[in-house]
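Sat 14:20. Reprocessing the chain from the morning session after the first attempt stalled halfway. Input below, unchanged.
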Amino acid sequence: MQISEAEAVVMQVLWGQHPLSADEVMARLPRSNDWAEATVKTLLNRLLNKGAIAAEKEGRRYRYSPLVERDAWVLEESSSLIDRLFDGRVAPLVAHFSQHQKLTRDDVAELRKLLEGLDDEQH
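Finished this time. Tokens:
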């Protein structure tokens, strides 16, 4: 399911807490998003039409909840990125970040630990 960058901001809010009304979603958006109420409602409607969220009528307003799990979305997005940019391979992605000095010492240590864990699982 394709979720735009703006829609993903709304999803992050709903993944953090739900159900929420449109006003509650607006109140929880990052301060850097100076969106009008109509923009938030448009994004919620798009997400509804995509089946990413559900709406439950409560009095005169709707309360929204995610139908797509965050982990499933992250897996789909990351797989799509790796497929598009690195022919589906993770090693060139890591090499790219390494060559452009985007990996911290902590990142490298975490990657080593992950790789050691994979080695242990294979033996």
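The mean pLDDT is 92.
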